[in-house]
Here is the input.
Amino acid sequence: MEDAGSAPQRVLTAKAAGLVGCTQCGRVHASGVTTCTRCGAPVSSRDGTSVQRVWAWLFAGLVVYIPANIYPMLRTTLLGKTTESTIFGGVVDLVHHGSYGVATIVFVASIIIPVAKFIAIAYLALSVERRVSLSAHKRHVLFEVVEFIGRWSMIDVFVVAILSSLVQLDFAAQINPGIAAVSFALSVAFTMISAQSFDPRLIWDADGE
Amino acid sequence: MTVQPPAKLPDTDGLIACPSCDALHLLRDVQPGETARCVRCHAVLEAPRNTAMTRIIMLALAALILMVAAIFFPFLELEAAGRIHRSSLLDTVMAFSSGLTAPLTFAMAALIVILPVIRFVALIYVLAPMAFGWRPAPHAEPAFRLAEMLRPWAMAEIFIVGVAVALVKVAGLAHVFIGPAFWAFVALVVVTVLKDNFMSRVTVWKTLEARRNGS
Here is the structure.
């Protein structure tokens, strides 16, 4: 058993050995090979454009996250009276109704996770080029958490869709989606692509020297 | 699996590079039930399981059947002031179909129904011949790569938690009844998680390659 906290282990990477490893299936190739002979995935020693693409998608995600918070997510019509609520407004409403558990889920999924994800991805991308205090192993775990948890932000969009299809009782009560649902969904998708563009091997490269 | 000095590197066929950190390892036969991890980043390299292939395709088949049930049975029912409104999974997908939010309709359909279904079909297509000991189907490699690429985008389990949140939001407003499709969808999520746990990507690729080469 290896101990994660022990002194850094001397490890030979495929790059240092002049070889190229496939990130899909782990097959090792001689340098210069561009397509994996086992799984057909494109292989490269390091993805040179990775960090650029991470930043591009991250900014795209950040830009659409702003209207997602300003514009209404839900338009609720109760007995002819229409109220519009934003993401944060929805959380406040839930707290007023006493549904603290659900308020927490929505608050975490649509505010905490997206913001934490922006910061985490930016931090990982920066850490490739400059020295940071977090060890490579911790950053690797951070990357896995970001990849795993990012898609859960889509929950708020699903909630809006379910409410809009379910609550259609003409005059008595009606719920319709607001434009923020679109920009929020886009923001989640863009940050997911941003995280996927990141080449985790870069985390370990700086660590080796 | 050990660290090897560069002076006496074996043939590339005898090596495996960790897919997430690029550390080189010597290939060794991993017994069914064992799990091989990267010495540096602890990512799972190989985890062969007995009859894993058969289990995965059975679960994928079950998931497909459940998906059909989830689409066609009523999903949720809402009763308020003597009026009943039924909503199916398709209604949920179509919730964004009017006005400026229309593009979201396609995204919803894709995330909840289309992408999961494509994944299940691709997995069955790739793994069924292997479970029966046949040669891999033509284009099995791109099919499996597609299934792996779609993994983060198939969001059925997130949708289920979304339903739970929506139910709590509506609970004060009206009576909500849960239809059979809801339970089909819950079962689908359980089956999907089980299936993904059985899958070890490198193991599938190695089996695929071995079978392709006619052994």
Summary: The helical segments of chain A are 50-70, 87-96, 100-129, 136-149, 155-166, 180-197, 201-208. Chain A is about 55% helix and 10% strand. The longest helix of chain A spans residues 100-129. Chain A touches chain B through 73 residues (CB under 8 Å).
